[in-house]
Amino acid sequence: MSKVNILAIESSCDDTSAAVLSDGVVLSNLIATQKIHEQYGGVVPEMASRAHMQNIIPVVSEALKKAGIAKEQIDAVAFTQAPGLIGSLLVGACFAKGYAQALNIPLIGVHHMQAHVLAHFIDDPKPEFPFLCLTVSGGHTQIVLCKSHLEMEVLGTTLDDAAGEAFDKTAKMLGLPYPGGPVVDKRAKEGDVYKYAFPISDIAGYDFSFSGIKTAVLYFLQKGKKQNEHFVEENINDICASVQHIIVTTLLKKFEQAAKELGVQHLGIAGGVSANSYLRQQFEAMCDKNSWNAYVPEFQYCTDNAAMIGITGYYKYLKEQFVDMNISPAAKASWDG
User: What are phi and psi of 29, to 5 degrees?
Assistant: First the structure.
């Protein structure tokens, strides 16, 4: 039986990514990053869409070349259907649909957050089911119970801001460059996590809230600057460490609660914020303490990438969960096809 070759495309935000997978094995995974947004302190949707249009053909061509796969050998095209910036999504969706139609092969729509979870199944060791995943990114914070590769239940989500947004907004208030999350992580390594105390949101169940942390940081900085105009510069490492500590503590408190109440032994973290070194360290320590199996994807599969779209597309291909070519490719996206 011949291998199943999937071309995958990810264009939900400002990274244009293409990957080629053969029977679930990643042969190539390329990302074109848009640097222009740094000067604006955030992603400008219109600019992101234009950049995707410029990048998508060369990125796909290079992904196929690096994989050593001809376009005629592709069995299906998987693409990010939602969520994301609508203009960016449409560029990837329309390209994927046209590519699939030209080759007369199936088109597979992928939910971006489901793909983050399934990034754990790219490399070994792979989690066993049931599997509990904490998915944290700039736009989402979720606890997801995975019963199989394609059967997932969102147990908890953020009621306002995502954890990644809390990192980025804190960085902005501190005058740090965009994207702020990695900069806060780097600064925090030189700081004292217990230097300053910030509140932990206390919401029932498995849901999260991070708007209160952002507000607390804002008032804290305003008070500090009134007392000393150089307060931020003189204490920035300690501030970063303390804020990072409270965000990570908030995340893992709920995650540990869910794992204990559900009796799940296999846990993982995913999404862009899972690249945070302190979150990884504290997550692994939590799992060690409870004798749980901890899983963290390779760094390149934590941030937005097409390989995670491809692995999800592979499992959906096996179940023949395809997109109807007669409807808009951006019409809907679900976790179950």
Answer: -155, 100
Strand 5-10 to strand 15-22: parallel, antiparallel, or no bridges (unpaired)? Answer: antiparallel
Number of neighbours of residue 34 by Cβ within 10 angstroms? 20
Q: Model pTM? A: 0.91
Distance separating alpha carbons of residues 246 and 175, to the nearest angstrom = 20
Cβ-contact 8, 18 below 8 angstroms: yes
Residue 165 token pair: 């947004």
Query: Measured at the alpha carbon of residue 202, what is the angle toward residues 197 and 207, in degrees to the nearest 5?
Result: 125
**Domains of the chain: residue spans and CATH:** 5-117+302-318 (3.30.420.40), 127-296 (3.30.420.40)
Task: For residue 29, give the nearest of 70, 60, 74, 69 by alpha carbon.
Answer: 60
Phi, psi (5° rounding) for residue 192?
-100, 115
The backbone torsions φ and ψ at residue 124, rounded to the nearest 5 degrees and listed phi first, read: -85, 150
CA–CA dist 269, 27 (Å, integer): 24
Q: pLDDT digits over 180-226, tens only? A: 889 999 999 999 999 999 988 878 899 999 989 999 999 999 999 99
How many angstroms separate the CA atoms of 160 and 215, rounded? 13
